[in-house]
Structures
1.
Amino acid sequence: MATNNKHAHPWSPLQAPKELAQKLNLDPKTLSLASSDFGHIENKTPLAVFEPSSESDIIELIKYSNSLPNPFTIAPRGQGHSTHGQGLTNDGVVLNMNRLGDFRNGSEIVVCDEYVDVGAEQLWIDVLRATLKHGLTPLSWTDYMYLSVGGTLSNAGINGTTFRFGPQISNVLQLEVITGKGDLLTCSPDNNSELFYAVLGGLGQFGIITRARIALGPAPTRVKWLRLLYTDFSEFTKDQENLISFHEKNETRGADHVAGYLLGNLPPPRDVSFYPEQDVPRINSLISQHGIVYSIELVKFYDNNSQSHIEEELANLIKGLKFIPTFAFEKDVSYEEFQNRLRADIEFLRANGLLDVPHPWLDLFVPKSRISDFKEGVLKDIILKQNIPVASLIFYPMNHNKWDNRMSAVTPDEDVFYALGFFRGSFTNEEMEASEAQNEQILQFCKDNGIQAKVYLASFKTQEEWVEHYGSKWELIKDRKDEFDPKRILSPGQKIFN
Ligand SMILES: Cc1cc2nc3c(=O)[nH]c(=O)nc-3n(C[C@H](O)[C@H](O)[C@H](O)COP(=O)(O)OP(=O)(O)OC[C@H]3O[C@@H](n4cnc5c(N)ncnc54)[C@H](O)[C@@H]3O)c2cc1C
């Protein structure tokens, strides 16, 4: 683990005014918990952890830092599920957003007909459960539900629903934000719109999201959940691209969730846990035979009203798809069970001591036009040849028109692009370093071959890399920083401006 605990900052929490000092936690155990994240790759001990009991406390903290000749940095922390220290600081204060939830007094999640107002520290699983009680649901999701609303909105929030409803940042109606200058502002597309677009996908650079208003729709009750296996890459991608185009063409027979996975001869193929136990040996033998097997995850939601025609709709949906007919698998589960499907895997890893290890993950957006080159150069020539364990490989397309370019998030500039995720856990330092080196090699391959890929959940080390990442958006990002956080206080762990 890379440790950087050199406290170079002249400010000490002991100098803070009394009202703030009471909320600056210096307990070594608390500092230690705030010095690392899900990635277990970077380690930085903050000077203190700030535990606010209201938005006003956060405002006071930010204003106090701004008033110093050398302001200290402030790193808001949701669930700490970043992988490369994005929420850490060693020359400032970690802001424990979770403490806000303790003081909301019933206002943490308020469900209305068309939207839900939530505290940014809330978990998506709790938002789901609260809205389901009213027969409603957010429309756009992440696969894992134990992430904070503020954390995913600072990135984008993607999964198999993104092709249809856009990332979670495209489903926000209004935000409450405390800027890096300490101003608490309500913002939306019509009100303080520059701040609204800045913080969505803004990597915590421009303000601290304290509340969000999220669009809702009617909640289904049940889910037809399919996995369809392919051995032919171009059939797999063609079918995925076709499936995500139905709603674009106003065809009602579209899917509600489309995702893809790769099953490789790389230990351990986690995705196999979906399949009936008796089928696992023949799936494994298919993988051995072909090196990689491709799996489309296709989902159709339904409820009592649509129950009578769901089978017919499903049959129409998969008609013409080129999966191997004897390798089609189906589950029928409740909507909540489907949304919370990753919980069991994470708990399994936790229970077996496999979760608190380094996670050198890489998430990439790759334009559709270069996806075959990526497959040849990366999947075949790097991933399969080097045989470094990858626990899970996701691979699915989304529609560019569901993203809003005014937001700070960046994507490839093509109508359809793929989200690729290489998820790994490392058990030794050597394994971690080899995985990180492989991630670098993948990015270098894209550069050398002119593939305009964009890293999602990026963890660059230098500003030059960020400038390249943002491309034509860099000037806008810089202007937004100058406007909303001129003293470069917020989220230093992203290493964009600090
Ligand atoms: C097991 C797992 C599964 C995941 N699955 C998905 C997935 O399916 N789809 C997806 O899109 N992502 C996924 N992610 C990535 C995840 O969305 C990001 O890591 C996200 O940042 C996690 O939220 P968090 O609350 O843990 O944020 P943190 O790690 O605590 O913070 C992330 C960044 O945002 C800043 N920040 C946090 N809260 C706020 C706030 N309120 N206002 C402003 N800035 C803030 C922090 O300073 C930091 O820079 C997954 C991660 C894990 C570990």
Note: The mean pLDDT is 94.
2.
Amino acid sequence: MPRVLIVGASLGGLRAAEALRDAGFHGAISSVGAEAHPPYNRPPLSKDVLLGNATSDGVLAELAFPRKARLGEIDWRLGMSVAAVDLAQGEARLADGSRIHFDALIVATGLRPRRLQLTGATADRFVLRTLPDALALRARLVPGARIAIIGGGFIGCEVAASARRRGCATTVIEPLIVPMQRALGQEFGAAMQALHEAAGIRFRTGRQVTGFEVDVSDRLHAVRLDDDSLVEADLAVEAVGSQPNTEWLAGNGFDLDDGILCDHRMAAIGHDRVAAVGDVARFPCLLFDDVPRRVEHWSIPGLTARRAAGHVARQLGVAVPDAPFAPLPTFWSDQLGLRIQCAGLPGLADRVGLLSGSLGPDSMRRDGAVMGYWRKDRQVGVAAIGVAPQRFINFQADLVRALQNCSL
Ligand SMILES: Cc1cc2nc3c(=O)[nH]c(=O)nc-3n(C[C@H](O)[C@H](O)[C@H](O)COP(=O)(O)OP(=O)(O)OC[C@H]3O[C@@H](n4cnc5c(N)ncnc54)[C@H](O)[C@@H]3O)c2cc1C
């Protein structure tokens, strides 16, 4: 009986197992995941989990994905990482030295937070990717605590909003001109900064962190910036991006430059029996162009898992019909009681413009606002704040039509 090994037991790994069964694969599936917990949903970690008081078990009861009956028998190995694979032998070596033989491999190992290459303040520096990360950070979000959030991307801004709601004195330090600039552009980012400032969150933009100032016990008292100014802080959150978990794939001829390079079937280049899904996969989004990119949004693991599972099942002799694959990246973010929704790849744009509403803090709260993003006069993205999902779907449909009707 053929065996598919899925490495990484989070959203992408779980969806890949489900999709293999949906594709008619009845062989063996082994799922190895480094986290001890069953697959759970990450987005609430920076929102509801930081704002709530639930215990680890309580949070898991809320966030664990339901295990669907159609999964059937799965050989779960949780709390265990794969240390290395040998594709020629079809064998994976686990951290405890045991081995799993496989006929096909699905890579679903996602990302881990990038760390600042600075020393000091070890006990007061936090990252946010996992449930234990969230619970450790939440324990320090007490009223009056001074928190420096390094990085004003989505996770940094969501943590800032949650920390402020818990009564912390919150400062976001961001090297670009405005927060969330790369994803949403300067106009939308500036409007978001104003919204955060109105809630009492301070910003130091255009600045990098150069050091952590500590006392004799190595406890943090300030973060030093590149203009030599200090931001007083009891704790710091490093929200400076992520790096793909691909070291375990080394030595097999994969392109691991930024995640694992895949083709439009989600097959690893040069290895038809290896596919990748979710945040770790670098693949071409054909709705835009044929440039491979990683897309770190919740919608992508599910979409790529279906594609990858179909491909892998076909490689193992299951007759699975092929279909065109041109996924539209979408994501959302909840900050300060407002929902941001985004579709497409606004980061590609060379021009932005309002499609509806205006970007003042009051009008965003009252009527919402929708921004369009164009590259060479072709729409490549749409982002909205304070707009009902049913209304946003219409803007998203316009975007898909625009993308289908002309190429970059
Ligand atoms: C705090 C936070 C908030 C977010 N909020 C949003 C949001 O609001 N909207 C949105 O669209 N997206 C959001 N995201 C992104 C979304 O959660 C991710 O896109 C999604 O989790 C990716 O799933 P994945 O399965 O590809 O990777 P991951 O969820 O990273 O899972 C990879 C798994 O592989 C395991 N692993 C790694 N290496 C090994 C190994 N060698 N052996 C075995 N296992 C291994 C890891 O431990 C992990 O469990 C958020 C992410 C975070 C962290």
Note: The mean pLDDT is 96.
3.
Amino acid sequence: MMRKNMKNIMITGIVLLICTFASSLTASADSNGSLFEVDASLLNMRSGPTHEAPIVGQLEDGDQLRTFEEQNGWVKTFFAGEPVWVNSEYLKLIKEDHNKEDENIEDSNSISKTVEEQVEKENDVIFSSSEPIFIDLPKDYEFFLESREVKISEHAVTVTKEILEDYHIVLDAGHGGHDSGGTNNGLKEKDLTIKTASVIGEMLEEKGAKVSYTREESDKEFISLQERVKMSNKLDADAFISLHYDWFDDPNANGIGTYFYHNNNKSLDLAKSVHSSLIHHVDMKDRGVRNVPYYVLRNNQEPAILLELGFISNPNNFEVIQKDEYREKVAEAITNGLIEYFSK
Ligand SMILES: [Zn+2]
């Protein structure tokens, strides 16, 4: 329940703050920046100005947003920094023209920069001003900015929490020891999975999560599937993610697949959130989300998924999956997927 509230706050907060910044950046362009309120119980945000465009989020009755462009009854606003469109039929005009206020926000761009650069510790005041900050949020509102829960009051922006702070994630680097997993031209799956796990783990820790590993970099030992699951169940973590790279006889097989097992309802949600984030972030073929009774999924008491992050046996995937850049993208995608999953 608490998590649900957090999500609403997160969506509204990000929309409003980003809009405020965006409006000041585009004030000189031909944008109106009018302030609207949602006048419907739920309003879909879509990636384009049509009913067919994919839904990227939802606003609730009373949420406020700024609009910057109109097309056939659809208006553009911003969500998590990305332009999104909502049907203007369900909006109520609150205040026209934001340009005058923008002159007062003089340096909202640098406020944004200050926020990003200075957010370090919990309860840090990351911005304060003797002058009011023009951000259209109710007083003492809490929301997330750049993965931190932030509190905005009239003259200060304060960090209250890291977004994944209450969560414990188990990362399971597939294979290890005498079990190399898939191999191709000297490349071993066990080495790729351990590198991937450490990049993901670092990123999750940056967002405040507690991370445990079933296998450490220095660990040359073989760890059985039974031991991995035992470890996970004992830790009583919030999510278990097993990392693999695929191998198949046919070198044409390629792409990313996500697996879950139906013994845990949450596993499907976790699989969906992480998979869609991966497909969105990484330029790989979508092999879908599938229900498969793998041992580490079947016997896990935590929400558990297994990711096949590309094919070692496919020439194109083989090149891509060895790059640091790919691991970074995968880590970012998994982190975002987890944030989405936990905020449901
Ligand atoms: Zn594997």
Note: Residues 174-175, 181, 189, 244 surround zinc ion (CB under 6 Å).
4.
Amino acid sequence: MASFSGYNPQSHSPSPSAPPMPNPQAPSSSQPHYSQPPHWHGSSYGHSSFPPGTHPDVIRSFQMVDRDRSGYIDEIELQQALSSGYQRFSLRTIRLLMFLFKNPSSPLGIGPNEFAALWSCLGQWRAIFERFDRDRSGKIDSMELKDALYSLGYAVPPSVLQVLISKYDDRSGRRVELNFDSFVECGMIVKGLTEKFKEKDPRYTGSATLTYDAFLSMIIPFLVA
Ligand SMILES: [Ca+2]
């Protein structure tokens, strides 16, 4: 028996209340643009082309790193494609993103559809990051993280939040603050694991019964991504 009451059953389909608006201006080279509506996973897999309406910046980022033109990119190439300017992603976060967005039936890596879905999802997280960085420190502290997750429908208990944020403590004595990379990682872990849990708790009671096998299968990909 595993128990978890951290999510708000009233809000079982979390999405930001204000998704990032498409940028009608000409793309600048300094910042990535996220022009697709938010998705968790791409709506279709297995296509070797981008969904209609994909922002040219997204296509350009993909093609720049897909040097062998295979139509798929690996984790290092994904890191290069996403890490531009202000936004660098650790390999750990990249692996987690690969796990969450990769088409399970495709061993080759991330294709255009998944890349476009991932890109728009990151735009969504970027908007959340900026909205909840209330003191404009450029980072998210534990209170800001709590509020950000709550806005998405995840009422993470303080004790759990403490465990989560302590993973990012650099032991300098300063209070822990998350950069965008770590914020995305935290958010993906909470969202991903909550959704896995909900599959075992379809009536949103906050409790689920699951086998040892199911428990490990649920957790391990998030630990060793
Ligand atoms: Ca802040």
Note: The domain at 41-223 is CATH 1.10.238.10 (Recoverin; domain 1).
